[in-house]
Amino acid sequence: MGAGRFACVALPFALMVCSIICIFIAMLSGIANKNLYMFELEAKNLSISTSNILGVDLTDGVQNGLGQINDALSPNRHNFSASELGLSDYYKVNLWNYCSYNATKKNEQTCTKGKFDWASSSIDLTHIKQVVQQVSNSNNATVPEPLNGSLKTFKQVHKWTQVVYVIAIISSFLTLFLGIAAIFSKVASCITYIISGVATTSLMIASSMATAESAIVIGSVKTVKDEYHVNGHINTSWLAVTWIAVAFSIGAGIFWLASICCCSTSSGHSSRRSRHGDQEKLIPTGSYQRVDDPHHFNAGVGGGAFSQGTAAVPMQPMNRGNGAYEPYSHQAI
């Protein structure tokens, strides 16, 4: 493995680590960090009448006597506040739980335990219905269908947002694991690139769902802000974290692709040794001298038939009569 290959793989590996860190920060909001959340709802100034949020069955008023009919026909006689409905002043909604607190005790947040599909069990209007039933003297007060439909939609979307985030974090960790093998093999780089694509795609979908979910909820709250005196806002810091995770994941995928196409898995030392071996197989380009033949007729100085103790005869190429010349040795003179 060469240093270039290591550097080529180390960059997307580091980018994927950064993406995982950002995913964890977003996913653990409300659990590890109570100051980070998806969006916040403000119910401190809530003022809502029985006719605006809950329907009252008039049959109860008839059955309870003429004195109750007037109450049933006039549900606007009472406006409910957040404290009357058992609501906190503020709610911070997170991926795995929610936190609530009152305006006078902002530092004393109460957070539910993190769990999968928390919205299905935590968003329950039973207590609110009971309060309204007591005030309106009606036993059949029900939540209007539009509100019920909105809550059901929120629960389903939030649950699937959790599922896609889990897929994103698992595939991101798998990318890191395969990235180690990608240092030594382009085939492993190819597999890592595919898994990285799954991680990036799932993370983009999860971030998009979380963004859309937050925007829809806060948008709905803004439409009734003046009527019910409620408010809310999206936490852009949380959205920034999850979309930065997407950016890191995309960058990692690009460099995983580059590690397949551009970076060699062989080291520079091996390449130099290979080139050196090829050079040894080539015919040298320096000076040559003849190689003694078996009969020593062309021996050099100090040997052969022409030496005989006298000065050596200078060696010259000899034509043996068949057009061929004596071979030369590979030793330089």
Protein model, in words:
Helix 1 runs antiparallel to helix 10, helix 7 runs antiparallel to helix 8 (186-223) and helix 8 (186-223) runs antiparallel to helix 10 (236-261). The protein folds into 2 domains: 3-261, no CATH class; 284-333, no CATH class. The strands form 3 sheets. The chain has a 5-stranded antiparallel β-sheet, covered by helices on one side. With 333 residues, it is of the alpha+beta class. The protein has helices at 3-27, 50-53, 58-63, 66-73, 118-122, 126-136, 145-181, 186-223, 225-228, 236-261, 268-281, and strands at 39-42, 48-49, 79-80, 90-93, 98-101, 110-111, 231-234, 289-290, 328-329. It is built from 11 helices and 9 strands. It is elongated.
Question: Which key terms come to mind for this protein?
Answer:
8% strand, 11 helices, 2 domains, alpha+beta, two-stranded antiparallel ribbon, 333 residues, 5-stranded antiparallel beta sheet
